[in-house]
Design brief:
Blueprint (H helix, E strand, L loop, with lengths): L3 E6 L7 H15 L5 E6 L5 H8 L3 E5 L16 H6 L4 E4 L2 H4 L5 H13 L3 E6 L9 H13 L11 E5 L15 H19 L1 H4 L4 E4 L7 H5 L6 E4 L6 H13 L1
Helix pairs in contact: 1-2, 1-10, 6-7
The chain binds 1,3-dihydroxyacetonephosphate.
């Protein structure tokens, strides 16, 4: 069985680099003996250089976004090559909080292609704003995947993960976390979409992770009954004590 992957998305936190170093240091110290899982921490760009050396081997560095191009006149953007040169191995693309700022599926598709082309592992986020009885939200998720992965070569899929993050389950204003049944159903649905796009062999290999109000109490069931290949953790990844508990729970499975 592949290792479960636990990814911490720090979003635009913490407020200064000193605190980022403290959080990273605690996470690294608490996770040293956890051999059965993969751990990724995604700090803001500005902290990558300082968190990188703390993360060392066990905790791998991720970024929360990147641009698609190599270099040039793109004020304020950060290229895949740049983050790679800082030691980043994973990059989150298409998070709903970026989509809410105006990122289109077309832009996300370019970013996915750019990141994969330099060998980064891409965590492509998808998820509906709300649910409806007629199942229209499934078409929405399907279209996010097919547009996000348009023209992506099958051979690149080994570096892809898909994160199911329903918007209604994210953040302190979330309605509630997804249920285990939701996670299981949508993982199967996403696998089916990937198989239709890329074929059975490649499609089934893509890990599907869940994110949205994951905490110490609910993390186990998403990974067991929900059959998630991993978790994308927001708020609780900034609380080293709780994040380590989540990591330990995943490591015990
Ligand atoms: P929360 O865990 O804070 O709900 O955030 C989830 C998320 O958006 C992770 O990318």
């Amino acid at each position: 069985m592949a290792k479960k992957i636990i990814i911490g998305n720090w979003k635009m936190n913490p407020v200064d680099v000193k605190e980022a170093e403290v959080i990273a240091g605690k996470i690294v110290a608490g996770s040293d003996s956890l051999k059965k899982i993969s751990i990724v921490v995604c700090p803001p760009f500005q902290y990558l250089e300082r968190v990188g050396p703390i993360a060392k081997k066990k905790v791998v560095l991720g970024a929360q976004d990147c641009f698609f191009g190599g270099k040039g006149p793109y004020t304020g953007e950060v290229s895949p090559e740049m983050i790679k040169s800082m030691g980043v191995k994973y990059v989150i693309i298409g998070h709903s909080e970026r989509r809410a700022l105006g990122e289109s599926d077309e832009l996300i598709n370019k970013k996915v292609g750019g990141a994969l082309s330099v060998g980064l592992k891409v965590i492509l986020c998808v998820g509906e704003r709300s649910r409806d009885d007629s199942g229209e939200f499934l078409n929405f998720i399907k279209s996010q995947i097919s547009q996000g992965l348009d023209k992506i070569k099958k051979s690149r899929l080994k570096n892809l993960l898909v994160a199911y993050e329903p918007i209604w389950a994210i953040g302190k204003d979330a309605l509630h976390p997804a249920t285990v049944q939701d996670v299981l159903e949508i993982s199967i649905f996403i696998k089916k979409v990937l198989v239709d796009l890329f074929g059975r062999e490649e499609g089934l290999k893509v890990p599907i992770v869940y994110g949205g109000s994951v905490d110490v109490n609910n993390c186990r069931e998403f990974l067991t009954d929900g059959q998630a290949d991993g978790l994308l953790v927001g708020r609780e990844s900034l609380n080293p004590e709780n994040f380590i508990k989540i990591l330990k729970t995943a490591n015990e499975l």
